[in-house]
């Protein structure tokens, strides 16, 4: 190739060689959404190549190598689709039931003084997927509403039966009365038997006496206590002493000591 240059009115003729550099397109492979895309591209970066083959990359997707990597022949590009899914589920929290003993209510009576109500709790499950395969799971529990306890009041006040008008009273004794129960606090080592001297089960209505004063098996009516049967004895029960059985140790303690009339029945 000749190059003509005019310089100072003179024509200079010279020759030069122009070199043209032709770059061949790079052959690359793109793996995405379960497909393989073979591509010849003149793009300089991975991001440019993905735009050329119309592959969209989501904000959470992973591109390997990254989008700024330079293209070279034989490059394998992999796009991992990353998805975050959240599921919320509500369920109930069962309420508990508590018993409160009420000495102002007759024994055996019950009433609901506070209705129970279930609570509410939400369970949020966050799941992480890569190419539709779950790789992570996180559960978060949040109580929306606490449960309300159910309260049942149970009466403990014993209604004393009056002496029947038709009862035949053989004798009336003024006696000192105490309380006991079949539990170990009252009976010590004998508590495991739970039986009286006559073999009856120790319970309310069974009393201990001095057999020299009241014979075992005698039916009685104790003032402030009600009908009873003399069925037990005790080391400290001497003379005009009577020991009244209660169903609980606390009732026996609460009774303390009282002077009472004891009606001996036929």
From TrEMBL:
Q: Which residues form the signal peptide?
A: 1-26
**Which UniProt key words apply to this protein?**
Signal
InterPro entries membership: 3D_dom (IPR010611), DUF348 (IPR007137), G5_dom (IPR011098), Resuscitation_pf_RpfB (IPR051933), RlpA-like_sf (IPR036908)
G5 domain location is 79-158
**One Pfam family here:** 3D
**Annotated GO biological process:** peptidoglycan turnover
Molecular functions (GO terms): hydrolase activity, hydrolyzing O-glycosyl compounds
Its Gene Ontology cellular component terms are:
outer membrane
**Protein known as:** G5 domain-containing protein
């Amino acid at each position: 190739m000749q190059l003509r240059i005019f310089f100072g009115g003179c024509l200079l003729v010279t020759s030069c060689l122009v070199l043209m550099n032709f770059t061949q397109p790079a052959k690359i492979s793109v793996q995405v959404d379960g497909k393989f895309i073979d591509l010849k591209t003149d793009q300089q970066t991975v991001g440019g190549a993905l735009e050329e083959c119309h592959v969209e990359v989501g904000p959470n997707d992973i591109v390997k190598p990254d989008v700024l990597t330079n293209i070279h022949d034989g490059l394998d590009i992999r796009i991992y689709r990353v998805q975050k899914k959240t599921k919320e589920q509500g369920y109930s929290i069962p309420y508990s039931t508590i018993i409160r003993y009420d000495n102002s209510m007759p024994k055996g009576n019950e009433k609901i003084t506070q209705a129970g109500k279930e609570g509410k709790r939400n369970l949020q499950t966050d799941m992480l997927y890569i190419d539709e395969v779950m790789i992570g799971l996180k559960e978060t529990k949040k109580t929306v509403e606490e449960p309300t306890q159910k309260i049942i009041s149970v009466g403990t006040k014993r209604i004393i039966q009056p002496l029947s008008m038709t009862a035949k009273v053989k004798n009336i004794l003024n006696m000192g009365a105490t309380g006991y129960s079949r539990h170990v606090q009252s009976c010590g080592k004998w508590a495991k038997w739970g039986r009286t001297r006559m073999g009856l089960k120790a319970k309310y209505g069974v009393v201990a006496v001095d057999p020299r004063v009241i014979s075992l098996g005698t039916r009685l009516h104790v003032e402030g206590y009600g009908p009873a049967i003399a069925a037990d004895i005790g080391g400290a029960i001497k003379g005009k002493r009577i020991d009244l059985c209660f169903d609980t140790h606390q009732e026996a303690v609460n009774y303390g000591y009282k002077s009472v009339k004891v009606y001996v029945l036929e």
